[in-house]
Here is the input.
Amino acid sequence: MDLKIYNTLAGKKEAFVPINEGKVGMYVCGPTVYDTSHIGHARSVVVFDMIFRWLGQIGFEVTYVRNFTDVDDKIIRKSNETGETCTAITEKYIDEFHNEMDALNVLRPTMEPKATEHIRHIIDFIQKLIDKGKAYHVPGGDVYFSIDSFEEYGKLSGRNPEDMRAGARIAVDEKKQSPLDFTLWKPAKPGEPSWDSPWGKGRPGWHIECSAMSAEYLGQGFDIHGGGKDLIFPHHENEIAQSEALFGCQFVKYWIHNGFVDINNEKMSKSLGNFTMIKEVLADYSPEVIRLFLLSKHYRSPIDYNEDSMREVSLGLDRIYAFLERLEDAGITGDDQNRGGLWEDFTTAMNDDFNSARALGSVFEAVKRGNKILDDAGDSPDAGAATELSAVYGDIKTLSRVLGIFMEAPKDWFAAKKEKGMADQAIDPADIDKLIEERTAARKSKNFARADEIRDQLQAMNIVLEDGPSGTFWRFEGK
RNA sequence: GGCGGCUUGGCCAAGGGGUAAGGCAACGGCCUGCAAAGCCGUUAUUCUCCGGUUCAAAUCCGGAAGCCGCCUCCA
Here is the structure.
């Protein structure tokens, strides 16, 4: 089965056929590095990380470019507020971004260009647009793109310029030929970062950097361009206008846009004060729980971040690790050459517009089936059962590298969880062991009242006991 | 005002013309001293509502209601 992608430009799912056979060029809008990243950034990055991994998994050679916007009004404003240089600010937040993405097990893109390292390309791009009559320079230094010069303006977002002109929300600017014209180059005020250009000292507008850098690394037309839904208009619309006006060919074949993360059913906003930062989420939940949460709903739908959802996701992840541990204890392993029915289901789901939610459903189904086989076999499967279980194990290991989840050894996963629980609650494991010993003794002498009292006491600390044939084990429940 | 999306069991969430995946929760059973974990069973004749097309609709079409996003920096 072949890959289908929902293409914003077409408004529907389309068969994915790359421009050059076997190769994919993909550009995703990265952050403007002036502040700490929030859970919404994490979703976009994790979703495209999954897409990048899946394209690689099914055999494409992917060139993945994600930029840093490191010159921008917001950065300058921050610099004015804090007294730090713009460079100090952008370097700090690029570092932070990298650290957080590494923590979330996000693979580095093939290239991570910065706008400030491509000013020459940007200036060339703008000059050529002016030469072609697609852009114009006004007294004072601004260069604008003329949307009237690009007939197809609005084709990505489904808007037409006439409707937008009629709307009341467009600021009137006397210097612009059309109110919708957007900035390609703006003159610098004293003290602001600036570069020499044919239009005087200044800096690029936001939209032009992506057109210039994508052309530089991926060519004049490439396969996939991604970003958050909010970027469809105006950012991506403007990119299309710039690039197609200059190159005269289709800029991007497939446009992919991810949905937003809400917080307790509200949009993240400054006024609500509910910005939830990646570092806060990482402090509360393990990276795999966060990834599982972000991939548990289709990437185009909105997803709601709240404690209940995170708890559920966490329990689900434990369930899968418990199954893997059970397999390993039964002597079952597998490798990624060993493909079974789960892999088929997973592939079908992923090829259907990267439907990770459905893909995860198939993982849980396989876990349920596997647990049943183990139950029936009393955890000593015969050769036939072992073969089937081994395929499930191998499939999970393989798909874990696509999702970036279930990658730990189960024993390590639960050990880490214990450690975190102990650290969070300042629990000494020796105390737990002592209580368990006391309970074991109580059970032996049939003093079940005392035994249950101890169990309740531990329960109050989120510690759950499991009495098995080889003794009593304990684990933390929750995050 | 313009453009787009969503509404599936107690909660979360797939499906998107052929008779409702999965997770969490709950209840009953097996197991257990009792539990936990795991498994089995039960929990939507029904997919916001009203019409229509069809042998057949949650899925397509028309209409209504509610919710949300974009059009301003935004993942």
Summary: Residues 346 and 361 of chain A are 9 Å apart (CA to CA). The longest helix of chain A spans residues 307-329. The first strand of chain A starts at residue 4 and ends at 7.
